[in-house]
Amino acid sequence: MSRPSHNLDLKLIAAARAMLPASGFSGLSIREVSRRAGVNVGMFHYHFKTRDAFVRRVMDEAYEDFFKTFVEAAKGPGHARARLRRVLVAFALFARDNRVLYTLLLRELLNAEPGILAFAKEKFPLHVYVLLGLMEECRKTRVVRPLPVPMLAMFAMSTMGLPNIVVTAFEANGLKRVAGMALPEFSRSLLSDEMIETRADMVLAALAPGGKK
Q: For the chain, which domains are there?
């Protein structure tokens, strides 16, 4: 026998992700999520039991999508530098395509929200371990500077992710123009596929042993 309310859990998750820009994780209301999804509150409890379990499911599904892409990029064919470039691009594309979720996660971590902290402690080491292993391989093959691997990884990932935070901050503060461009145009340019590819090449050039110090 099929379970009751087939796919209603997915509707609830979709409704929550649509609400996140205004509510954040801490402001998600079970009743409001259910109303927007067109789902009875009783069905919410049937699927998720508690609000905390629901928020965790939203985060877990997003992370699973990210981690799969990340590992495929890191462990696919090619030499270490090529795989590192794929990782940088994959990370930046995911952060852009899930920009609201990405920036909210960082905000909630800075606010020390307990549920998000627990999520980060469990999940983040998974992709960090993959990244550090790849960066160590790059260092051993001398395609990056002989600096501590965590420093190299932090520089690379923060450079690829920062534009998402910048654009979100500009939008939140109601900026209309940036560098002589309308904000939507600026955002599209900064977060475009082409610019992400270019930014990955710039990061690799900065990490290269022959780069300027």
A: 1-49 (1.10.10.60), 58-207 (1.10.357.10)
Summarised one tens digit per residue, pLDDT across range 22-78 is 777 777 888 899 999 898 888 888 888 888 888 888 888 888 889 999 999 999 899
Q: What is the pTM of this model?
A: 0.82
Residue 173 class from Cβ within 10 Å (0-12 exposed, 13-18 middle, 19+ buried)? exposed
Q: Which long-range contacts (CB under 8 A, 24 or more apart) does 149-156 make?
A: 152/207, 153/128, 155/203, 155/206, 155/207, 156/84, 156/88, 156/203, 156/207
